[in-house]
Amino acid sequence: MLRLFAAPAIAGALCCALAPAAARTGEIATEMTVTGELRGITRTQTVSLRDLDLRHHAQVARAESRLRFASKQVCDTSATQDLYQKRDYSLCFDQALTSARSDLDRHVAQARNR
Hints:
By secondary structure, this protein is an alpha+beta fold.
């Protein structure tokens, strides 16, 4: 009778012991969302990190390039000619990129710590 209970107990203990490791590997992002708000309109764009290994500097630089491009896209307007529109664009771009870089820094730290 003890053997019947021992196997499920061991399996349960292994499952609980391995769950945190599985959760940690699941935390590494394969996508990021860049959000920009321009004149009360919020736009988002998803950036894929799936093909990048964030443990390497060159790959992080590529991710940053993608984030800059996405920040330009979410803050872009076809008419940014006057001074106020340029200022609004600049604020939107700076906030979107700063937020995205902060998220990227967290993902890089997680990737390098696994």
